[in-house]
Design a protein that fits this description.
InterPro entries: DSBA-like_thioredoxin_dom (IPR001853), Thioredoxin-like_sf (IPR036249). The chain has a domain at about 75-155: 3-Layer(aba) Sandwich (Glutaredoxin), CATH 3.40.30. It is built from eight helices and four strands; from the N terminus they run E-H-E-H-H-H-H-H-H-E-E-H. The protein has helices at about 15-30, 50-70, 85-95, 100-115, 120-130, 140-145, 145-160, 185-195; strands spanning about 5-10, 30-40, 170, 175-180. The chain has a four-stranded mixed beta sheet. Helix 3 packs antiparallel against helix 4 (about 100-115), helix 3 packs across helix 7 (about 145-160) and helix 4 crosses helix 5. It starts with a strand and ends in a 6-residue tail after the last helix.
Length: about 200
Amino acid sequence: MSVSVDVWSDFVCPFCFLVSTNLKRLAETHDIQLTWHAFELRPFGSPPPDAQYRQFIAEKTPAMVAMAKTQYGVDINQGPFGIDSRWAHRAAKWAEQQGQGDAFAQAVLSAYWLQAQDISQPAVLAACAEVVGLDASNLAAILADPLYDAAVEEDIALAQQLRLSGVPASVFAKRYLVVGAQPYEVFADVLQQANEPPASN
């Protein structure tokens, strides 16, 4: 039986990328239905990060890169810091509409965290779309449709309704919440619980 996994994430969140590697690994051996939901660590339209915050992040980055290598086996090659992720979220909603939501989300995460791409640029998003077999020849015009902004806002509103204050947040079978970049074994254990029938009253 397929288990739904709803993931709230921001493409520019390092821990969201690390969780994506766990979920991808889980999907290789288990029947799960991944749905990615938008969350913006910096709300759309926010001013760029100031120098003090940039310095803070720069000091934390080496430890994150080392942890990604030792615990997840990935070599971080991060895209530009402080970019707006709204275009990427819009594109993810479009890809989801085309039946390629999970594949596209994984492609965007890889582009930003492994290939140092600027995912705020429509051309980069179009390349990600083409990687997963989508026709992105007119993507910039497509994403200007208010429909995709509305879909992003719906995801953000649902996160608030569920009281999700940070990401990554993964909800298994609409019942079990995993917050943060937990080890793979945690996700596997929660999936096993989700596969068990709910206890009857």
